[in-house]
DNA sequence: TAATCGTGGTA
DNA sequence: TTACCAAGATT
């Protein structure tokens, strides 16, 4: 039991990690732990799928409230499938990567209408569904069905790159890492628990900046730790620095029957913030828009006042968004459009950048 | 293969 | 402030 592990012995690595998971693994809202299973609790594939979609590139604390809210509002895949898409998008607002929400809704409709509400167990059948790629298909197989799978997320990439001290930088090393990860995953029983365990190890012990190697169940097998170079792995290519884009948006309010209202519009279907609500405004360009372009983008001719500037960071550029505000005179209905009660702005489903702009206008 | 696609937390 | 990071998928 105290014998040193070897990274060329996948069976013992697998067993050691499972033993660690039984003691130290996290309890997460969507997770069925071994002791839960012993009490007869079974995973709900719909709830598992929902969690995996929300957790793509997203932290547990950020995703968790959304997961609870979605399950409460739409308890089954049929409920979600029959919900209006604008309701789903609004409920997703603030989580980011909005293509996930569009794909999630499309996936729910396929599962509800074509698959009788049952998620597939087959890897290729899962991967064929919208929003489900290689990682998520394996994660659903493992967490929902306890079927053989190899999950490789950012956590696992880090753990495996350190264990084998892989010199190839990401993302080129993905194939090599996947192969190594699959070898260990396939070398034991309890595939569902193993998948959770290897991700937990990366999330709580083998962390990016300050790994807790002293308590790691794989310490005695880890090549990077032997070299005292844990945080040098995984190797990564340098990232490009983000360009800046500039834009102007318009915060127009009027007096409605139930109080003040704000003018919004829906963004185009695809692309950045696709299908989400926004304040009307100019395009976001590398050069600040000129006066003519700004005037042409205003929803109405008015005495626009400068309300301030929103700075927001997207995945591949930074945005500096000037907010201009105006209030229509009493009795002036203003332009056609989606007027939203200011008192219910949170339910309007604004993405974070637009919520910042909306607040700045008051 | 490389770009695109959010957000909030942390060092 | 800047840079990095978090249960990736799609085109």
TrEMBL record:
It comes from the Bacteria. SUPFAM superfamilies: DNA-glycosylase, Nudix. Binds 1 [4Fe-4S] cluster. Residues 54-204 form the HhH-GPD domain. The keyword DNA damage applies. PROSITE patterns: ENDONUCLEASE_III_1. Its cofactor is [4Fe-4S] cluster. InterPro entries: DNA_glycosylase (IPR011257), Endonuclease3_FeS-loop_motif (IPR003651), Endouclease-III_FeS-bd_BS (IPR004035), HhH-GPD_domain (IPR003265), HhH_base_excis_C (IPR023170), HhH_motif (IPR000445), MIG/MutY (IPR044298), MutY_C (IPR029119). Adenine glycosylase active on G-A mispairs. MutY also corrects error-prone DNA synthesis past GO lesions which are due to the oxidatively damaged form of guanine: 7,8-dihydro-8-oxoguanine (8-oxo-dGTP). This is Adenine DNA glycosylase.
């Amino acid at each position: 039991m105290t014998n040193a592990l070897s990274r060329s012995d996948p069976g013992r690595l697998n067993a050691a990690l499972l033993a660690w998971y039984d003691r130290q693994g996290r309890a997460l809202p969507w997770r069925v732990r071994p002791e839960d299973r012993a009490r007869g609790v079974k995973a709900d594939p719909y709830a598992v799928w929902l969690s995996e979609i929300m957790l793509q590139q997203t932290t547990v604390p950020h995703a968790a409230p959304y997961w609870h809210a979605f399950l409460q509002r739409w308890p089954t895949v049929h409920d979600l499938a029959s919900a209006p898409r604008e309701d789903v998008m609004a409920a997703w607002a603030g989580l980011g990567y909005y293509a996930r929400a569009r794909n999630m809704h499309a996936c729910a409709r396929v599962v509800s209408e074509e698959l009788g509400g049952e998620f597939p167990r087959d890897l290729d059948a899962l991967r064929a569904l919208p929003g489900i790629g290689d990682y998520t298909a394996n994660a659903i197989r493992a967490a929902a069905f306890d079927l053989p799978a190899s999950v490789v997320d950012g956590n696992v990439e880090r753990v495996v790159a350190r264990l084998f001290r892989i010199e190839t930088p990401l993302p080129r090393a993905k194939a090599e890492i996947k192969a190594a990860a699959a070898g260990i995953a396939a070398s034991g029983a309890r595939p569902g628990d193993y998948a959770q365990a290897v991700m937990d190890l990366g999330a709580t012990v083998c962390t990016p900046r300050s790994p807790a190697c002293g308590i790691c169940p794989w310490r005695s097998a880890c090549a990077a730790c032997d070299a005292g170079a844990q945080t040098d792995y995984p190797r990564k290519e340098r990232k490009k620095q983000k360009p800046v884009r500039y834009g102007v948006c318009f915060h127009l309010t009027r007096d409605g029957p139930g109080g003040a209202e704000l003018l919004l519009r829906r963004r185009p279907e695809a692309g950045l913030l696709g299908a989400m609500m926004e304040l009307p405004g100019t395009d976001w360009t590398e050069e600040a828009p000129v006066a003519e372009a700004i005037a042409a983008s205003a929803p109405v001719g008015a005495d626009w006042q400068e309300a301030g500037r929103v700075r927001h960071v997207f995945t591949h550029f930074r945005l500096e968004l000037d907010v201009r505000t105006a209030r229509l005179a009493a009795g002036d209905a203003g332009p056609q459009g989606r007027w939203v009660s200011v008192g219910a702005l949170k339910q309007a489903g604004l993405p974070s950048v637009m919520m910042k702009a909306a607040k700045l206008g008051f």
